[in-house]
Amino acid sequence: MWLRLMTIAFVANGLAPFGLKLLQERGLLETYRLPYLLFWYLGALPLAASAFLWKRGRLRLCEVLIGGAMGACSLGGQLATAVALESLPGHMVFAITTGGSLFVVAAAGICLFRERVGEYGLAGIGLGIVSLLLLGTS
Known about the structure:
This protein has helices at residues 2-25, 29-55, 61-85, 90-111, 119-137. The protein is flat. The protein is built from 5 helices and no strands.
């Protein structure tokens, strides 16, 4: 089950930025970024509602607040990506947004949750930082 959910998350996580890139390539990003993101996030509502109804659990206020906060952060990130695409090339924007969020999550895991990172993990984090620096100077 976890593999199916992770595959869905992997695919769905790239769809919204891909749509932003398509709008940028067609010269429509400035005009349609807000309606695009509005419909993208409103479109997730039926999906979330169907998952809730399928599980038949009890909805708690805390869950709604946490989900709303996560959605607002996600929307803010997508909006910032759209604004960045208006003045920077896509290969820089997507590398920085993806790599930056991976770095923040890795740093939080190490610093806040005391996760142990092996040699390969440290090498991956280091290479990610170097790649962001190289892309930033290109």
